[in-house]
From TrEMBL:
Keywords annotated in UniProt: 4Fe-4S, Electron transport, Iron, Iron-sulfur, Membrane, Metal-binding, Transmembrane, Transmembrane helix, Transport
GO cellular component: plasma membrane
Gene3D superfamilies, sorted: Immunoglobulins
InterPro entries for this protein: 4Fe4S_Fe-S-bd, 4Fe4S_Fe_S_CS, Cyt_c_oxidase_cbb3_FixG, Electron_Trans/Redox, FixG_C, Ig-like_fold
Organism: Sedimenticola selenatireducens
Positions of transmembrane segments: 43-61, 90-111, 164-182, 194-215, 341-360
Annotated gene: ccoG
PANTHER family per UniProt: FERREDOXIN-TYPE PROTEIN NAPH (PTHR30176:SF3)
Residues covered by the 4Fe-4S ferredoxin-type domain: 262-291
Name of protein: Cytochrome c oxidase accessory protein CcoG
GO molecular function: 4 iron, 4 sulfur cluster binding; metal ion binding
Stored Pfam families: Fer4_18, Fer4_5, FixG_C
Length: 476
């Protein structure tokens, strides 16, 4: 038996507005319980949240006899696989921070607050917390009813289970953070034996409280009032930026669908004022009012609107990723005509180049040479000229090294104090005082260039070396 298309259409309208009656625009006076619906952008949100998996897993990877990536603050060492970075190389950290800051600006200029909507830890953790909340307490309407209902055994049981799960997630977050700064396996052993240090213990407790409070209670209020990015995004977004946008040309004037009416008879736009875009918004904004501070560009409103349009047999895309210029009929401005993007990209390139150069030239050992100024030189009884130097050997490895110091480039040079190896302690700077003597007839100028070399081998037999230029001062 065939189904009357008009009856099917009227049934869809009844279902749509029966639910729409429960939704209104939230102005912050009550807790937001966002509706979850399936869709393309919801899938992308879950996939994007997987970028945080390494935060939990990477600390357990091993490299030789230590943690693969370890930020050892007490010993002032950063271990990245086979590379050890000491405070002397922290200029690369500055370039890395600059890279991510400019990358954020580039992405915002092109596609709005994509970081906020898909990758931000506040967004991801809140999404996980509310997913468990929905599984335990039900739909948004049921959650509101439960919150407003009397205190019963069922309510206590459900609420206690939810908060216990939240606390477990918060604890794992805190432990995972601390595991980047101390050996992860030792951290768990200390936790099990209740032998955790004060610093690690306090840090974990702070993360538990912060995660539990921000993702469980403050939620969207964190984005509104605590995050500075919401305030500065306005200077990064312009009319050429593609963001989730309501097509007001097509949607207005809004009008509810009347039962029994046909598409040919309607005089309103495509927006049927169902408020589904508001219902799914995690910050409770109405995208139809244009770009707002609370919009985190998560694109869930696109899924909601497309689902409604599909039910009503209307074209999708009433809400879509689009720039204001394109929406108003202007020709889309290509990247080649957007100087700001080029400037951002140049800074990104320079940052990456600097980091690459730093990593490529990162030596396992380094030496610094300090020439004594008092006196500049000493005339010896045999007629030779003597200069005094302090050689500082920096060992970036996790093992002690026996380093040989030499300066072989000048004929007749005698190096006093370098007869024995310098025992360079792991991760430390080891000084050694040396005297350089050169026959006066071998000095061609008053200030003679002089190169010191440091050579050693590690436990695997790999040869390591470093050199540093200095000067040898003689009489006029």
């Amino acid at each position: 038996m065939s189904v009357n298309p008009q009856s099917k259409h009227d049934a869809v309208v009844d279902e749509l507005y029966a639910e729409a009656g429960h939704w209104k625009i939230n102005t912050g006076e009550e807790k937001i319980h966002a509706k979850r619906i399936p869709g393309k952008w919801r899938i992308w949100k879950w996939l994007a949240s997987l970028v945080w998996l390494p935060f939990f897993l990477v600390p357990y990877l091993r490299w030789d006899d230590r943690q693969a990536i370890l930020f050892d603050i007490p010993n002032r060492q950063f271990h990245l696989l086979g590379v050890t970075i000491l405070p002397q190389d922290f200029w690369m950290l500055s370039l890395l921070l600059l890279f991510f800051a400019i990358l954020l600006a580039v992405v915002t200029a092109l596609a709005g607050r994509v970081w906020c909507g898909f990758f931000c830890f506040q967004t991801v953790w809140t999404d996980i917390f509310t997913w468990f909340e929905e599984k335990l307490e039900g739909s948004p309407q049921k959650r509101k009813k439960l919150d407003q209902g009397p205190l019963t055994f069922t309510k206590v049981r459900v609420k206690a289970t939810k908060h216990l799960i939240w606390i477990v997630i918060s604890a794992l977050t805190g432990i995972s953070f601390v595991a980047w700064f101390m050996d992860a396996y030792q951290l768990w052993a200390d936790l099990v034996s209740f032998n955790i240090g004060i610093t690690a213990g306090v840090t974990i407790l702070l993360f538990i409280g912060g995660t539990y409070g921000l993702a469980g209670y403050l939620r969207e209020q964190t984005c509104f009032w605590l995050c500075p990015y919401a305030r500065i995004q306005g200077v990064m977004v312009d009319n050429t930026t593609a963001v989730p946008t309501y097509d007001f040309h097509r949607g207005e004037p809004r009008g509810r669908v009347k039962k029994g009416s046909s598409e040919a008879q309607r005089t309103t736009g495509d927006c049927v004022d169902c408020n589904q875009c508001v219902a799914v918004c995690p910050t409770g904004v109405d995208i139809r009012h244009g770009q707002q501070e609370g919009c985190i560009t998560c694109a869930l409103c696109i899924d909601a609107c497309d689902a409604v349009m599909e039910k009503l047999d209307r074209p999708k895309g009433l809400i879509r990723y689009e720039s204001l210029d394109v929406l108003n009929g202007k020709e889309e401005r290509p990247l080649l005509k957007r100087p700001r993007v080029w400037v951002y990209s140049l800074v990104l390139l320079l940052s990456v180049t600097g980091i690459g150069y730093g990593m490529a030239t990162l030596d396992a050992i380094e030496i610094k040479v300090i020439h004594s100024r008092q006196p500049l030189y000493v005339l010896q009884s045999d007629g030779s000229i003597q200069n005094k130097y302090t050689i500082k050997v920096l060992n970036k490895l996790t093992e002690d090294l026996q380093v040989t110091i030499s300066a072989p480039d000048i004929e007749g040079l005698v190096l006093v104090g370098a007869e024995e190896h310098v025992t360079a302690r792991k991760g430390m700077v080891t000084p050694r005082t040396l005297f350089v003597r050169i026959p006066r007839d071998k000095l061609k100028v008053e200030s003679q260039p002089l190169v010191f070399y440091a050579e050693t081998t590690d436990s695997s037999g790999k040869r390591l070396s470093s050199k540093r230029e200095s000067v040898f001062i003689g009489p006029k």
